[in-house]
Specification:
Blueprint: H1 4-18, E1 23-28, H2 31-34, H3 39-46, E2 51-57, E3 60-65, E4 70-74, E5 79-84, E6 114-120, E7 125-130, E8 136-140, H4 145-150, H5 164-171, H6 178-183, H7 193-203, H8 216-235, E9 276-280, E10 283-287
Antiparallel strand pairs: 1-6, 2-3, 3-4, 4-8, 5-7, 6-7, 9-10
């Protein structure tokens, strides 16, 4: 599932393509994308809107319109937002997007996983494709987006206001494993399985340590680890393990620099011990048993 670095990469690359543009035509082909709302109605309401800003909140892409309305896009597991420049449509079009999706370096024109297409007023397209169809588009009326997100998302881990003290407050009294605590989107927005493992390795904290038992020094180390792991992911345009692509169709590069995630049996870069895989917070979890001991 795309996490904060992947979603931020998508936002940053789409921002100059979208801001100031009018949605000249919107076609939504999958009813699951907008349910329970009729996709035809949603497409009609989006048509004509002008984009004033492209933000991110947690794992949501937040498209803000001049009307005050907001479109929340959640990519879930396999969603992709691709930008196709003007003149590359139809029979010639999407073949020119590199790196997609079947290993041939092209995206077929009759791609069965294309769920929506937005034609912009400069003639370019934003294509939404989703293999597993878990992604969502939600059009929200003016003034309603902030309460909606506040009910579902905690603090932004890269925001200046997210300090080690704030992290400690979010973890205080939690008996759950620390990995489960930092995966809880209501406490910390945008961190998923990959970057949780990477952050815990950087902080030298075992993923099954009870969150409320971390010392002040460990909380400070975890705060640094979360931010460092996320910033590394953004700098490398996210991680492509299977489906994730940038809006230009390229793969991310963070997967080549994982410290623990997916590296079962490989040596820890810090101490040389073999990386192990366990289950924590119901998820496959990678850690170094020598550097990240269960006891404090």
């Amino acid at each position: 599932m795309p996490e904060l670095p992947e979603v931020e990469t998508v936002r940053a690359q789409l921002e100059p393509k979208l801001v100031g543009r009018r949605l000249a035509d919107v076609q939504i082909a999958d009813h699951r994308l907008t349910r329970p709302h009729d996709p035809t109605v949603v497409a009609a309401e989006l048509t004509g809107e002008r984009v004033t800003a492209l933000d991110r909140r947690g794992k949501y892409v937040v498209v803000r319109f001049k009307s005050g309305r907001v479109l929340l896009i959640h990519l879930r597991m396999t969603g992709q937002l691709l930008h196709v420049p003007a003149g590359l449509h139809d029979s010639a079009g999407l073949h020119d997007l590199a790196g997609l999706h079947d290993g041939s370096g092209s995206l077929p024109v009759d791609d069965p996983h294309r769920r929506a297409v937005v034609r912009l007023d400069d003639g370019s397209d934003v294509v939404y494709r989703d293999v597993r169809r878990f992604g969502t588009w939600l059009l929200i009326e003016p003034g309603e987006v902030d309460p909606y997100l506040a009910q579902r998302l905690g603090r932004e881990p890269l925001a200046p206001a997210f300090t080690a003290r704030r992290l400690g407050e979010a973890l205080a009294g939690r008996k759950a494993p620390v990995k489960a605590a930092i995966l809880d989107q209501r406490r910390l927005a945008g961190v998923g399985n990959i970057y949780a493992d990477e952050a815990l390795w950087r902080a030298q904290i075992h993923p099954q340590r009870p969150a409320g038992e971390l010392t002040e020094a460990e909380i400070a180390a975890l705060h640094r680890g979360i931010r460092a792991a996320l910033r590394a992911g953004i700098a490398r345009q996210g991680a492509t393990l299977r489906d994730y692509r940038t809006p230009g169709g390229a793969s991310g590069q963070m997967q080549h620099e994982f410290k623990v995630y997916g590296r079962t049996g490989e040596p820890c870069e810090r101490c040389g011990s073999p990386i192990e895989k366990i289950r924590a917070a119901g998820r496959g979890t990678w850690y170094c048993p020598a550097c990240q001991k269960l006891s404090s």
